[in-house]
Design goal:
Strand content: under 5%
Structural class: mainly alpha
Helix content: over 70%
Order of helices and strands: HHHHHHHH
Largest sheet: none
Oligomer: single chain
Number of helices: 8
C-alpha cells in the first residue's frame, strides 16, 4: 500500500475518469494497478463525484444538468476523453422505445 501523499498525486480526477469511465475498469482493477484497496478507489470516486450511471444512455444536456454545467462543457469533455457519443439515430430510437414503453405502462 502506498502512502497517502503518493496516492493523492496518482488518484486525480482526470486519472479516475480515464480509468473508470473511459477504460471501463472496476474499483478492483484500478486498485490492483495502483497498489491500494478498492475502498480507497471508491472513496476517491465519491470525493470527485464520478459516477458511471450519469453518463450511460443520457443526452449531453441531461448529463450537464446533473453535473451543474451546460451541454457544451459535457461535449468538450467527451471529445477530450475520446468517449463516443450516440448518433442521432440511436437517440431517436431510444426515444421511440421509451415513448412506446411509457405509453404502454401508463395505459395498463
Amino acid at each position: 500500500m502506498k502512502n497517502r501523499k503518493k496516492l493523492r498525486s496518482i488518484l486525480t480526477n482526470q486519472y479516475l475518469i480515464k480509468q473508470y469511465i473511459k477504460n471501463n475498469k472496476t474499483y478492483v482493477q484500478i486498485a490492483k494497478e495502483i497498489g491500494c484497496s478498492y475502498e480507497t478507489i471508491r472513496r476517491y470516486l465519491n470525493k470527485y463525484n464520478i459516477k458511471k450511471h450519469i453518463i450511460n444512455h443520457k443526452s449531453c444536456r441531461i448529463v450537464g444538468l446533473a453535473l451543474g454545467c451546460n451541454k457544451t462543457i459535457v461535449m468538450r469533455g467527451l471529445k477530450q476523453w475520446k468517449i463516443k457519443r450516440r448518433g442521432t439515430f440511436q437517440v431517436g430510437k431510444l426515444a421511440q422505445i421509451w415513448n412506446e414503453n411509457t405509453f404502454y405502462n401508463w395505459h395498463l
